Amino acid sequence: MTRKIYSILFLSILFTIILCSCENSSKDQETNKPNIIVVFCDDMGYGDLSCFGHPTIKTPQLDRLAAEGQKWTSFYVTAPVCTPSRAGLITGRYPVRSGFMGGVLHPISKGGLPQSEITIPELLKDAGYSTACIGKWHLGHLPQFLPTNHGFDYYYGIPYSNDMDKIDAVKDNPMEANINPEIRFFNVPLMRNTEIIERPAQQTTIVKRYTEETVQYINDNKEGPFFIYLAHNMPHIPLFRSLDFENKSERGIYGDVIEEIDWSVGQIRKALEDNGIAENTLVIFTSDNGPWLRFDQQGGSAGLLRGGKGSTWEGGMREPTIFWWKGKLKTGIVSDMGSTLDFLPTFCNLADVPVPDDRHMDGFDLTKTLLYGEKSPRDIMIFSRGNDVAAIRKGDFKAHFIVRRDPELQEQLPLLYHLGHDPSEKYNIADQYPEIIDELRLEAEKFKKTVIPVVDQVRLR
User: Fold this and answer.
1) Would residue 82 show up in a list of annotated catalytic residues for this protein?
2) Is residue 435 a part of any domain in this protein?
């Protein structure tokens, strides 16, 4: 009898140990899902960081992340302007599929990101993530389109570009207002969740306050997992920076702004390390499109790349991009192609949630490239102009089928460049490779057949 009692007790203890082990394993699995932070600038050029070649803008924090992580030199956004670029990032789909054919949303716009779209934060919430959008949204300012209706638990920021909502006194001379700005010129709202808490937003401290909100969210959610989408309004014109960064950079006010953003990244890194979660947090830094060249010295630089914001030349859509995950990434420079389209499937893999299979997805999972240095699965990139394919890159070759504001080049279409040999797109080699032109035409037609017509959200008024 005693032996039987001992046997029962032993089995009970064993069962309890196994049960606790399973529960702890489940908790560990949840905890081991990495936190993810995407830092997304506005109108920053390919050549605006010291680690990407700028000689006078100092970005030591980003340089450090690049040295410890991966620096991607052929990384693309999905459009050369704000709204469609952000739609591509958040949905993992080319923006034309969501109703963003070109142009951007304005305060008078009635459109926004459709509720039918599935977003990164919605997918990550299914995996137990807390989610925050801090900064510029620009995917619809009406209540049904705000971040809190697209999967984010928390929102703090300006819902569109910082040069909008100009007061009547400066509407007749917008260029002057942008170049010599005052806070009162731009009646943009600062929101917390769905409420306006400040108007006009005090933009001289906006980078600092976005940083403080991000650090606070990290501190409050350090048990994880969490996803933070930090979308700076800067260095979009008009340029503002805090007193601590006034006249600090050799590059002038534009450099001041970039160096404050670099400081911001350093504060985020420090918060991760102070909370002991740097080894379990993937940080990505990039921008929504190339520099706004029409503003001369107050705009950025695309470095050796051609063009800038608004163009489908490389300078409009190839962005300086850094991935950092302390001790986890295969360190080095990645010259393979990648895109913000690839964030969604990569994050889904890391969070162990399925990628939507009920719609056409355009991203590739970059996990093996990030962790093991394997070749990127992306070998093609579409450069849209409305419903048309303006350009397409496959491998090293890029063909242009539409070029704006250049009658001489329009007569030479199509254009072809070898981006490995000629990243500046200076030397048209279309006559040497007619078979490549034909191949890229077929790829463009193939892509267009996958696009289902939808309502143009930007044109809704």
Assistant:
1) yes
2) yes
Within-domain flag for 17: no
Strand partners for 388: 385
Set 41, 82, 133, 348: catalytic member: 82
Picking from 378, 413, 432, the residue at the C-terminal end of a domain is 378
Q: How far apart are CA 185 and CA 228, in angstroms?
A: 30
Q: Are strands 380-385 and 388-394 parallel, antiparallel or unpaired?
A: antiparallel
Distances (CA, A) of 231 to 37, 39, 235, 325: 10, 6, 11, 19
Q: Are residues 321 and 405 in the same domain?
A: no
Q: Does 95 map to a domain?
A: yes
Phi, psi of 224 (to 5 degrees): 60, 180
Q: Is 133 a catalytic residue?
A: no
Average pLDDT in the 378-406 region?
95
Residue 401 token pair:
């089928």
pLDDT tens digits, one per residue of 116-170: 999 999 999 999 999 999 999 999 999 999 999 999 999 999 999 999 999 999 9
Range of the domain at 408: 383-449
Instruction: Please pick, among 41, 54, 133, 138, the residue that the annotation labels catalytic.
Output: 138
Q: How confident is the model at residue 461 (pLDDT cuts 50, 70, 90)?
A: confident
Q: How confident is the model at residue 30 (pLDDT cuts 50, 70, 90)?
A: very low
Q: Give me the number of domains the chain comprises.
A: 2
CA triple 308-77-74, angle to 5 deg? 85
76 touches 277 (CB < 8 A) = no
Q: What CATH number has the domain bearing residue 416? A: 3.30.1120.10
- Asked if 161 and 236 touch (Cβ cutoff 8 Å), the reply is yes
Pair 134, 147 in one domain: yes
Global confidence as pTM: 0.93
180 and 264 co-located in one domain: yes
